[in-house]
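1st attempt posting a full record on here, be nice pls
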Amino acid sequence: MPLQKYKVLASCCALAFALGTAVASAEPVKWDFSDEYGANPNDFTIQAAQYCIAEVEKRAGDDLDITYQGGGALGLKSADHFDAVSSGQVQAAITLLTQLSGVDPLFNLSSIPFLSNSPEEAYRLWQIAKPEYAKVFEKNGMVLLWALPNAPSGIHAKMPITSVDALKGLRIRTYDKNGTDTFKAAGAAPLQLAFSDLVPQLSTGGVDAVLTSADGGKGMSIWDYGLNNFTEINYAMALFVVHVNKDAFDKLTPAAQSALIDTVEDCDKYAWGVMERGRTSPYEEMMANGMTITTDDEVPAEVFQLLGDAAGSIKDDWLAATGDRGKAILDAFEAGK
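the predicted structure (as tokens):
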């Protein structure tokens, strides 16, 4: 082959290789986003997650493609997410924070009973505590992003919880240690269960009441299991948080990194809006399926007194376990009331 033709051919090959490399590099980075919940399209977590994923992808352009894996599609529960995201098994997750109390007792804050009495107070508590939460995630190779509060928890049961006796021996599902300790002290027989483990227990009569929000009960058609009443007790607004693997984050383009960080405030506000809109909106569907709603003003003061007394030691125990970190958070929170 003449030298000139060889040079032309070599140049063409080099150009083709460069173009191929450019095309390959233009392929978006693919992430999975794990959620134990979100099996129902009306669930809070799927609404907030899908909105925020769309916002991130819009800002990141073609640099990041995030697949929402709801309803435990990856076989992971909230309790698994800390290690799974830290190790890079999955790049991102939305996690019920109180399921991570074994990692750090700080994470039990949002489920201290009757601590924050409104969505506004819950948001302020999140903003105060977030820097301390973020340190724990950072230490374990993760980046903490935004949060979603669950609607205030109430009791789904076969009858209204309008007396102290109604709590005695009640086999109630709880979702964390705080709830378990509170209801045990109130005379109930609590069983701590992940949401994904609840249906088998309801089906076999293992529990006859469930501590969760109205939306949580509606999402699983809880009336199908004979629980025909929801009693408002405004127990706690447990927090979900979104966290991502730090190594995976660092490998993203600057545009994709900025998209994840710049949407945090917007996602926080949207998530709080999801919760506020969903506090009582499930009631219509619940009543259409034969349920009754017992509002908090129908619950006698002695029931709240019993539950408050039963929960009394939990804040003290949390402060003892978290030391100066916990005290600083609660001092700042109380100062803002």
